[in-house]
Amino acid sequence: MKAVQSFIGEPVAIVGAGLVGAGWAIAFARAGLTTRVYDANPSLSEKVLPWAAKQLSALHAHGLLGEPPQVVANRLVCVNSLKEAVDGVAYVQESVLERLDVKRQLMEDLDAIADADVIIGSSSSGIPASAFANDLEISPRALIAHPVNPPHLVPVVELVPSTQTSADTVEFVDRLMVSIGQSVVHVRKEVEGFVLNRLQAALLREAWALQRDGVASCEDIDKTVRDGLGWRWSFMGPFETIDLNAPGGIADYASRLGALYYSIARSRVDDGPWNAELIAQVEKDRRQHLCADDLAARRDWRDEKLMEFAARKSSISGQSVSEPGSCTGA
Amino acid sequence: MKAVQSFIGEPVAIVGAGLVGAGWAIAFARAGLTTRVYDANPSLSEKVLPWAAKQLSALHAHGLLGEPPQVVANRLVCVNSLKEAVDGVAYVQESVLERLDVKRQLMEDLDAIADADVIIGSSSSGIPASAFANDLEISPRALIAHPVNPPHLVPVVELVPSTQTSADTVEFVDRLMVSIGQSVVHVRKEVEGFVLNRLQAALLREAWALQRDGVASCEDIDKTVRDGLGWRWSFMGPFETIDLNAPGGIADYASRLGALYYSIARSRVDDGPWNAELIAQVEKDRRQHLCADDLAARRDWRDEKLMEFAARKSSISGQSVSEPGSCTGA
């Protein structure tokens, strides 16, 4: 296993060149790494370079690139075979189809052809690594590295080891991800949905139930988050938010509001699946605020907003805003 | 009932001058309304003017006041009796103690002394208006107007009518709140926790369970939100987020991920209360990132960040970023 320090300038491989893989390619290239891109479907990998050129221009316009876009683009190399992609690389980020058989086949292929010390991170958002990466030579060197889409715009990445991943591998990918500017979350057990999608699932379940029961519209629920809860969560997270929301901190908060929150939770005990009728109702509600024909344009708007957000975060982190520190005492 | 148009420049009353009431006072005064502040405890109302002066200076420094702080401060008037506070006002925002008997007593007092057309908004975060504002002369003119704390920094406000609130009252408070720059959410049924705290409760329940089960630390869960989910939620909300996260929009998203999310929800069916042991465990975890002694300073940091956030939102809303439009077709 190579040290991260010797890593910058060395090649990494992106296997699977859909939106997630292409976003990863930018994240690595932007940090100075030569990035080989491969997809079994050549029509996908052909799209990566033109797409990346547009994204890099936009990042540059928002002050999010330290170099000219072309310098970063020059680090992206599309290749025509898996062998060519992984030959001599220290790290492979796989973002192939979210299907057990497809991921397992790739692991077996990598097991056969990759160097003996290569590390493999999987973008899997749901399937745990133990389900497709175990009982191979490479098993100790494979884990989940699950990003938010798109990974070059939103920094969080969940690292989830399999039952056979080594501690060295987790540490290596942690350092690598931090070195390219991602924000690493360690998920210690292979729970369904990992952490990010479990949190999202919990909030969405309540949101859908409120819409279904006629308590509030999609738009009003969105407002509650984007003009309320989301402001604090975008720089504090839920624990710090409540820690600051009672005079005595989080334990004080729990003793004041724990009973209410438990009562709310019990009111949603097995609330049923989202059935076809409810899906149709929610879609109709959403379409009053965004036409289906405008979805693509609105995604461009979202990416633009994420860049503004990232630019603001990076300018603020250069200022003297105090960051949380650990207790020296207790 | 007075028209909102004739309202600016007229007095409003703030009853209850803790942090929520004091924040409301700034929100109204900033929008040009003369704002009378009353608390049954004079030591609380005495603190409002010096506190407001500091807040107004900070708002001004962030470009969030269109006038000198002193001009806004001059609209704040501390008064010594409820009668003096509400005499001739069109609107009363009550933010007294969150206790049924206290709120009921205030409603009865207002019923006895306020003008016949006064409208009353309650900052209650949990007790529904039907529990304390019904069967009085003023009942049709009272509703919940629940803010996020502090209301002058975070714009969302939930309007929740009681079973006896008139539609005119809801409309009046909607217009008033929009005119002072708040973001109005209509909650159509008096559900426990309304919308905002139900959404927060759902996310917190999952977050606490993940910490309890050793899946992730408080800090890593906070990171997942503040470096991931919170970025999108801070300008889109949860429904728009998923509407843009599948090629065919929200129904497509639900058909792809509905089963996973339902499975996650079922894994948390009646998960138990936060008991003393869990509260101690979570507090210990949080204290590794923030000492109890630093809570107060960190709250100042939070308010500073919220002002930066508000300043950025207000500068962006002046740009040509397209806002969501409703379908002209479907």
What does this structure look like?
The structure is a homodimer of 330-residue chains. Chain A has 330 residues and is of the alpha/beta class. The first copy, chain A, is built from twelve helices and eight strands. Chain A has two domains: 4-186, 3-Layer(aba) Sandwich (Rossmann fold); 197-287, N-(1-d-carboxylethyl)-l-norvaline Dehydrogenase, domain 2 (Orthogonal Bundle), CATH 1.10.1040. Chain A has an eight-stranded mixed beta sheet. In chain A, helix 1 packs across helix 2 (42-61) and helix 9 (237-243) packs across helix 10 (250-266). At the A-B interface, strand 8, helix 7, helix 8, helix 9 and helix 10 of A face strand 8, helix 7, helix 8, helix 9 and helix 10 of B.
List its traits.
alpha/beta, 2 domains, 11% strand, Rossmann fold, 8 strands, homodimer, 330 residues, 12 helices
Q: Could you write a compact summary of the structure shown?
A:
Chain A has 330 residues and is α/β, with parallel strands linked by helices.
Shape of chain A: globular
| Amount of helix of chain A | 40-55%
> Helical stretch count of chain A?
12
- Arithmetic mean pLDDT of chain A: 90
- The strands making up the biggest β-sheet of chain A line up spatially as 3-2-1-4-5-6-7-8
Q: Which CATH architecture of the largest domain in chain A would you pick? A: 3-Layer(aba) Sandwich
**Given this structure, which CATH class of the largest domain in chain A is correct?**
Alpha Beta
Task: Quickly give the structural class of chain A.
Answer: alpha/beta
* Unreliable stretches covering 5 or more consecutive residues of chain A: 318-326
Total beta-strand segments of chain A = 8
CATH homologous superfamily classification of the largest domain in chain A: NAD(P)-binding Rossmann-like Domain
Query: What is the N-to-C succession of helices and strands of chain A?
Result: EHEHHEHEHEEEHEHHHHHH
Report the biggest beta sheet of chain A as strand number plus sense, adding barrel if it closes: 8 strands, mixed
- Find the biggest chain interface: A-B, 122 and 120 residues
Report Rg of chain A.
Answer: 22 Å
CATH topology of the largest domain in chain A: Rossmann fold
Q: Could you state the oligomeric state of the chains shown?
A: homodimer
Approximately how much beta-strand content do the residues of chain A carry? 5-15%
